[in-house]
Amino acid sequence: MIKDLHEKLLAHGKDTGLLLARLGIGFFFFYVHGLPKVLAGGEVWLKLGGAIGNFGITFAPAAWGFMAAAAECGGGLLVLLGLLTRPAAAALTFNMLVASVMHLAMGQGLQEASHAAEAMFFFLALTFTGAGRFSLDQLVFKGRF
């Protein structure tokens, strides 16, 4: 009986942990990071989009910047809701890779790149695990997405 209870707690513990992580990180990416960048407009998008230049992509920096802002805002909201979590997390993984490389290319070192790198690894893990049991993905897609 104790073994069964322990197994149930562990099973729900993983899903509860994913829920709490998604709610916290999703909220901050949506509301604190993404939404202000989306609302800021073209000047900020141009600056953000310049970071993709570290990968040799130099055309349409404002468009790249808007996509980065939209990934943080929309992707953060989707992660928070647990809806289309894997594609949203994959987009955010790429976004945070670009941000990490930008900090390193600017000579700011690991200390400055660490936030983006940490978020990148979180989103990469979420790309593989999915949203968990307590998510709209589970409700809508029955865990197949």
Task: Describe what you observe in this structure.
This protein is mainly alpha-helical and 145 residues long. It has one domain (2-141). It contains six helices and no strands. The protein has helices spanning 2-40, 42-49, 61-81, 85-105, 109-129, 136-141. Helix 2 packs across helix 3. It is elongated. The model has no long low-confidence stretch (mean pLDDT 93).
Layout of strands and helices, then pairs:
Blueprint: H1 2-40, H2 42-49, H3 61-81, H4 85-105, H5 109-129, H6 136-141
Helix pairs in contact: 1-3, 2-3, 3-4, 4-5
Key features of this structure:
mainly alpha, 0% strand, single chain, 145 residues
H/I helix tally: 6
Q: What is the H/E string?
A: HHHHHH
**What level of helicity do the residues show?**
over 70%
| Distance, first to last CA | 34 Å
> Proportion of β residues?
under 5%
Q: What is the residue-averaged pLDDT?
A: 93
Report the count of strand segments. 0
Class by alpha and beta content: mainly alpha
What Rg, in angstroms, do the CA atoms define? 17 Å
Major sheet description: none
How would you sum up the global shape? elongated
Q: Which residue ranges are poorly predicted, with pLDDT under 50 across at least 5 consecutive positions? A: none
Overall number of domains: 1
